[in-house]
From TrEMBL:
Coiled coil: none annotated. InterPro entries: CaM-bd_dom (IPR004178), K_chnl_Ca-activ_SK (IPR015449), K_chnl_dom (IPR013099). It holds the Pfam family CaMBD. The keyword Transferase does not apply. Residues 374-450 form the Calmodulin-binding domain. This is Calmodulin-binding domain-containing protein. The keyword DNA-binding does not apply. One of its GO terms (cellular component) is membrane. It is a multi-pass membrane protein. GO terms for molecular function: calmodulin binding; small conductance calcium-activated potassium channel activity.
């Protein structure tokens, strides 16, 4: 029954919509009289099939050359209808995506519950309770597959509306077909009802390389890929994002040639709340990887049957520590450990970038810091210059103004004099470095030379603007005078013409 409903819904969604030409009245009605097919309207969209109109040589009457069923064609909807239809499809697509995520998460939760109850010995895989839970997982999977097909059917309809197409097969490119097939393959994997087992042989690294042979149910290999359904979270985040749903944001993005996709939304979230995004991702990855590692390893080693040991192994692998006290035995567990290490390296790099961004001073803070450093360096420069003058005076005093020169005092003041000169040079060097590090226009504007240059340039530009206005005024007055002279010359010519005419007549 569910399959029939999904098939009927899909066929309804893929049904050819009303033609969506953006120009109303571009396709005028065909008259019932004999009209040659070569005189088709130029407003026909190139990507549309337009099945309302007969093709060349089809449905032509044998005698009169008129189309069968002639009369006025259906009126094509305008741009307002297309926008309304598009908005309704957007809302419908968002709801179907939400339902698909709910079904996917429901199947994952039931799968985890079924595996935990069977591994705890509450029931066996052959019991009626296990079969009931697996049947529930299968039903949710069938509904999920139908929702995915319906989602892509709405995508095709949106493509048809955006491109004024009338045939849904135009939108079925190889990329879209491959994407639909991949999503259906990912979401179709689930533990099927029944008890099916296989023999799993592996080399136990924790027990001196002993070969372990265990009979393992197929549910292990069919349950772990169900976590790939979590990709639906990214789709829901995209469809519920304000950047994607807000018309103004999409308009600004279109003007700046920005593609609103999942990647852009994740970048925006990493900019707005990077700590929260990283925390949620790392905790989710830690829990999922720990549970999957436990499912792979619990049949061969009792140490991995404890979830805390699996979480410990994932944590030290994620942090690139690797004590080696607990190691995976199966290739499944080793693959999960390698994937965890790679994800840990990536998350560590992201964490370093986020922390460095948080520790970096903002523009206002840099402003205040540069101003305070400039003030302190100015004070130090004045103190160093005063020390140089003081030691110069003391050296002169103890060498010229005393009756008896004390060489020890003179050397002491000479030493202090040199230290004061070195301090003065160091302060000047620090000021030069501060000016080099000032990377904003406001910081550079504190330099008196730059400020004077800016004032000079402003005065020159103002003077040029004033002179230009004066020249324009003079040109305007000159044009007015030339016009007046032309009028006077014309009047004089007419006056002489009338005088000559009058003289000739008389």
């Amino acid at each position: 029954m569910i399959v029939c409903f999904v098939a009927e819904f899909t066929s309804f969604q893929l049904r050819k919509p009303v033609s969506t030409l953006s120009i109303p009245g571009a396709m005028k009605a065909y008259s019932g009289g004999g009209r040659d097919a070569g005189g088709e309207e130029a407003g026909v969209a190139l990507v549309g099939v337009h099945s309302e109109y007969p093709r060349f040589g089809e449905e032509r009457a044998l005698g009169g050359g008129t189309y069968k069923g002639g009369g006025t064609a259906k009126h094509k909807p305008n741009i307002g209808y297309r926008l309304g239809r598009r908005k309704a499809l957007f809302e419908k697509r968002k709801r179907i995506s939400d339902y698909a995520l709910v079904m996917g998460m429901f199947g994952i939760i039931i799968m985890v519950v079924e595996n935990e109850l069977s591994s705890a010995g509450v029931y066996t895989k052959a019991s009626i309770y296990s079969q009931a839970l697996k049947t529930l997982i299968s039903m949710s999977t069938v509904i999920l597959l139908g929702l995915i097909v319906a989602y892509h059917a709405l995508e095709v309809q949106l493509f048809m509306i955006d491109n004024c197409a009338d045939d849904w097969r135009i939108a079925m490119t190889w990329q879209r077909i491959a994407q639909i097939g991949l999503e259906l393959a990912i979401c179709a994997v689930h533990p099927i009802p029944g008890q099916y087992t296989f023999t799993w042989t592996t080399k136990l690294a924790n027990k001196g390389g002993v070969i372990g042979v265990e009979v393992v149910p197929y549910d292990v290999t069919l349950s772990l890929p169900m976590f790939f359904r979590l990709y639906l979270i990214c789709r829901v985040m995209l469809l519920h994002s304000k950047l994607f749903t807000d018309a103004s944001s999409r308009s600004i993005g279109a003007l700046n040639r920005i593609n609103f996709n999942t990647r852009f939304v994740l970048k925006t979230l990493m900019t707005i709340c990077p700590g929260t995004v990283l925390l949620v991702f790392m905790v989710s990855l830690w829990i999922i990887a720990s549970w999957t590692l436990r499912q792979c390893e619990r049949f061969h080693d009792e140490e991995h049957a404890n979830l805390l040991n699996a979480m410990w192994l994932i944590a030290i692998t994620f942090l690139s520590v690797g004590f080696g006290d607990i190691v995976p035995n199966t290739y499944c567990g080793r693959g999960i450990a390698v994937s965890t290490g790679i994800m840990g390296a990536g998350c560590t790099a992201l964490l370093v970038a986020v922390v460095s961004r948080k520790l970096e001073l903002t523009r206002a803070e840099k402003h205040v810091h540069n101003f305070m450093m400039d003030t302190q360096l100015t004070k130090r420069l004045k103190n160093a210059a005063a020390n140089v003058l003081r030691e110069t005076w003391l050296i002169y005093k103890h060498t010229r103004l005393v009756k008896r020169v004390h060489p020890g005092r003179v050397r002491t003041h000479q030493r202090k004099f040199l230290l004061a000169i070195y301090a003065l040079r160091k302060v000047k060097m620090d000021q030069r470095k501060l000016m080099d590090n000032a990377n904003t226009i406001t910081d550079m504007a504190k330099d008196p030379f730059l400020l004077q240059t800016q004032n000079t340039v402003y005065e020159i530009v103002s003077d040029m603007s004033t002179r230009q206005d004066t020249i324009e005024e003079r040109l305007t007055s000159l044009e007015e005078k030339l016009t007046s002279l032309q009028v006077i010359s014309i009047i004089i010519e007419y006056f002489f013409y009338y005088l000559i005419s009058y003289a000739v007549i008389n």
